[in-house]
Amino acid sequence: MEKEFQGEEEFAAMSFYQLEDVLFGLEIGPEGDCVQALSRCEYKGTEALTMDEEYHLMRKQVEETEGFDMDFTQFRYGFNYKPVDFGDNKLVPDGETMRGLLDRLSRKSLELYNDGKATSYEFLEVSKANYHMAGAGVMYFITFLAKQDSSDDPKTFQAKVHYSCIDDNKYLTCEEKCSLH
């Protein structure tokens, strides 16, 4: 069974569904000690930033985009917020692909949006997604395209979904992307 939050009170009470603080990623080094993780993205920064500068830049991007539109190529270090690799199926159930999972979560988010707004948007495709681990699951920040009928231009939507390994998925937000994001 899928669950949608109905009110702000319930949402506020579930603080682990809100934006998570930015944290540096850690990996186990060759001698068994924890070391800073490096970003898995191709670094395209014009100049190397210090760890503190990268941390503050990541925090700024998370806050300004609410987790959706971050430029991970600006970072040498890895953080808890990461871009989804559509070819990596480690975080999905057996028999499903990452793309299939994100399509399914997006379709359900859009269905709840349509029910609440009395609209009839149809899902087209996921264009990108970010995530961070959250409790016994994964918080996904999914950007996807949808349109109302065949003559309309596609609209960009953003959905925040907590995908759980042991509980119902939580469909937290689904909104048409505003031009500020």
TrEMBL record:
InterPro entries: Cystatin-related_pln, Cystatin_sf. NCBIfam families: Atha_cystat_rel. This is Cystatin domain-containing protein. It comes from Eruca vesicaria subsp. sativa (Garden rocket).
